[in-house]
Design goal:
Four Helix Bundle (Hemerythrin (Met), subunit A); Transmembrane protein 269; CDP_ALCOHOL_P_TRANSF_CS; mainly alpha; globular
Length: 265
Amino acid sequence: MLFYSIIFRSFQLLCCGQTDAERIMILLTPSSGFFQRTNKLFLSEQATGVQLKEFVRKNAANALSMANMLMGMASILCSLNGHQHAACWLVLIGYLLDLADGAVARRLDACSPLGAKLDDFADFTTFGIATSLLLRTHALMDNILCMCYVLSVFVRLCFFSSGIPFMYRGLPCIYSSAILACLSLLTGGNMVILRVTAVAMILFMVNQGFYPHDRVLESQAWKKVVYAGGVVMVFCSSFSPACVYYLLWSVSYILFPTSLWSCKV
């Protein structure tokens, strides 16, 4: 279009009586309509790019929380259809996603009330409902234990704010879920071990003890290595080494929370 505009202007100049200087100035003057439209399009594309980057920055952590929730929903469906092995693995993937979403939100300065609510909903889905179904059988007492486990996660998420920066009150439910999922895989779903462990995890979650905030991706380098090792274990190893790895990781948080997992950046 620009080429045809210049040709048309050249023809006009040949037919008119302007001087050579005037002809050159007119020829070099852009067609206002075309260039205005081009400029508006360019500016709108720039604005769209900026808005897209801002949208991604604000919602990257929310996307991780949503992914965690999807892992929980998929784990629930697997448990209901008898695929216990897959259900446990999905809980462990949710474990990694939950550790990452808070770190990403703080790193991108994108913390928000919506993000906090999404994180709680995702935790309740994956580490409450989905994990409790790992304990479900046809026995009445096992079903009661499932409900008690869900209620303990609910109480832990809703009422156990410590009021101290970077400190939890009560064991974070992601660690109890990781322990149950790993034991379910390692023992082949041995219900005696799972029942005893579930009762212990319920007591840890509803107690008043303090645990440090698990800022794994924002702390010392060795903690980042631990997290990277967890990712590698999920996707690149057989289930037994991975389960032992996650079991040791979670138990160390319970037994040595201050000495190992304190939030020294």
